[in-house]
Design brief:
alpha/beta; Rossmann fold; 265 residues; AB_hydrolase_fold (chains A, B); 40% helix; 16% strand; seven-stranded mixed β-sheet; homodimer
Chain lengths: 265, 265
């Protein structure tokens, strides 16, 4: 199976332009970038893909050993870039993909020009001894993972609208719910464990390229202190607090997200 | 069993002052008003209570027939007011208690001077045919109730921090999680069904007293359009959009909440 098939890679935009690679978050897929990509297609070669187990990737390629840490996902990103012979890409990662992008850039800096991190968090758990606020108490995360395991569809329907926020526009939460529900429960659970129980704080200072931290207002997954922490620990980063609320500004507030990205690029 | 014991009524503040009655929301109890009451204790007689099945109420008094609609809870409120011989009270209701207060005021207007509604919603389900946005799709609410039923503690730990918002201050979400978890699962499930599947839109125009609608920003339970709807349908109401985020401004932003209430009172 080719890597491009495995990750359902699709290419568009300016053929010989620099690459802009979009990496979706937990329970999502490449279609969720649809409001952003047109703004960059004139100048950039747009690279979209789905992580294995998500969207239209090859489910058979799922390997619970490989994907038992974010490194496995970072390997996927690097393999896609190698396959396409891409260097100096702008990598746009949503949520957990911000850290996946950071790990990939640390491994092969030449492949990245910069990282755009949409709602990043290097650690979701609070760490009192270090004075670190991630937003989640250990009991809450255990409950979240238990609840996910006992009733994945119910969990998805409960959580997705909360994560999306913007209940004024229910179609947004509905899209995220449907996307969560389409994801294989076992794969989703492992990805959630890897995501929510991980700790990438020590990786941030090693990121070898400049970054943009896009932080939303009232994001139930990544609170503002977390975005500020990421900004502070990255060697070279811009920080933008969006007026967009929720955890998915690329869907709920694309114009503001595009404007911040254009200023950075 | 006396009504004051049943609902764990506690009195404080100015003994001969007008009454200010505080009614908690789903999975909460009277202790959650502790940041607001001191600001009103000089002028008002402060009345706190717990709904049956919540806080330190008499669990044995729970009656699944009586509490199968919000009317049962409104009866509790009226019985407490009768027992204390209270008329012309300022009734402060959080979330579902806003509608409970509305129902009680419609039944016995003389007992109420005004209603303060903190994060009210007359209907959580969207109603496309009426062009009404409540924030929740039917599938999402079914999923939420299913998930609650299959793993109440996991559901509580997942949901409470999202409902509270303000992940920057994890102690807030933790308090709500603990309060949800202390509630009897069967009682909580019935209260959630009654709350989330109810429709009190037609009651709003009947509210016979003036009201204050306190709407939060980025509230995953009651979006802004819902607060605006409540304001529009009430015969006489003030509307304040708080800069406070989440669904519990009385805990997360007491100063702003108090200021809005003082202007109204």
């Amino acid at each position: 199976m080719s890597i491009l098939t495995r990750n359902n890679v699709s290419l568009s935009g300016r053929e010989n332009g620099p690459a802009m690679v979009f990496a979706h978050g937990f329970g999502c897929d490449q279609t969720m970038w649809r409001y952003l990509t047109p703004a960059f297609a004139d100048r950039y070669r747009i690279v979209l893909f789905d992580y294995v187990g998500h969207g239209k990737s090859e489910l058979a390629a799922y390997d619970s050993g490989r994907y038992d840490s974010l490194d496995g996902y970072a390997r996927d990103v690097l393999e896609v870039l190698e396959e396409l012979d891409i260097s100096s890409a702008v990598f746009v990662g949503h949520s957990v993909s911000s850290m996946i992008g950071a790990l990939a850039a640390i491994q092969q800096p030449e492949r990245f020009e910069s990282l755009v991190m949409v709602g990043p968090s290097p650690r979701y758990l609070n760490d009192e001894s270090a004075g670190y606020v991630g937003g989640f108490e250990p009991d809450d995360l255990r409950g979240l993972l238990d609840s996910m395991e006992s009733n994945y569809l119910g969990w998805s329907s409960s959580m997705a609208p909360m994560i999306m926020g913007n209940g004024d526009r229910p179609e947004l939460g509905e899209e995220l719910t449907n996307s969560f529900c389409r994801t294989d429960p076992a794969i989703a659970l492992q990805f959630a464990q890897v995501t929510f129980l991980g700790d990438n704080r020590s990786d941030l200072p090693k990121v070898p390229v400049r970054s943009l931290v896009l932080q939303c207002t009232a994001d139930v997954i990544a609170p503002e202190v977390v975005g500020e922490y990421v900004h502070e620990k990255l060697p070279e980063s811009d920080y933008v607090l969006l007026s967009a609320t929720g955890h998915c500004p690329h869907l709920s507030a694309p114009a503001e997200t595009i404007a911040a990205m254009q200023r950075f690029c």
